Amino acid sequence: MKSRLTGLALSALALSASLASAQDYPAQPITLVNPYAAGGSADLIARTLAEGMTERLGQPVVVENRPGAATAIAATYVAQSDPDGYTLLIASSPTHFITPEIQPVQYEGLADFAPVAMIANVPNVLVVGSGAELSTLEELVAKAKESPDTLAFASVGNGSLPHLSSVLLMQETDTQMVHIPYGGAAPAVVDVLAGNVDLAFLNLPPLLPHIESGALVPLGVAAPERTPLLPDVATMAELGLGEFQMSTWFGVSAPANTPEDVVAKLDAAIADTLQDEELRQRLEASGVMMFYKPTDEFAGFLESESERLLKLLDAADVPRN
């Protein structure tokens, strides 16, 4: 009986300490780890979010860039950090599903994280070069059907969202095209502009200046709604391809077992930040669209998105680890 009472007392003390910790949170600066290099959309999102969260939480939220290994360096670091809410990850499809499937990593893509909130997405836009003499999706599909495996599409690597977007396009239109992977968006765009490849599904920001100049022709946006930066370009769904959504989304995740009260405080700070009109306008001007989902919805999204993207990896014949 004495042993049992001692155990209950220890459990009560642990619970009390946990509650006190959650009530006092945050008591020190928070690190928001970005798995991408400085200067891109993820970095803009992270720094804008950190600015708003700092104001709302009363502690500095510091962005730390840890690029490399297709996001695995940053994801591993956060997954192995203390689950106290002071080390967070800018989450994306590669951190949670794609990279753990196609290369060896030291973490579990879903099990080792606590979802906090989805924050934004960057539309992927289907483009062709102006010299391709294709001005609509219908014309592209007709040409692909007429001459299978002659049109080539660029991506930023095997298993990347631009790759899987084109795989989904081929599935939805019953066409076959040739995949040409590149080491990043910049060389892919260069070759579409030069006519060395016919098309690409890439993030909007690096495409926008070339679309505005007329060098690239946008055929469709793979997002839930049109982007304000291309108001005249229809979504893939509007073009008859059902719920064709392959945007590059970003969220915030914490290490698994982070206290629920801490996660709730973080979620509330993120939600309030994303209501800030000045911050929203700053992000939207760069091609980023707000796409907030609270903790529970974000967790459900991760489960369904994982299933969807793993099926596309199978269809793309991407080697698994």
From TrEMBL:
InterPro entries: BUG, Bug_dom1. Keywords: Receptor, Signal. It comes from the Bacteria. Residues 1-22 form the signal peptide. It holds the Pfam family TctC. The keyword Signal applies. Gene3D superfamilies: Bordetella uptake gene, domain 1, Periplasmic binding protein-like II. This is Tripartite-type tricarboxylate transporter, receptor component TctC. Belongs to the UPF0065 (bug) family.
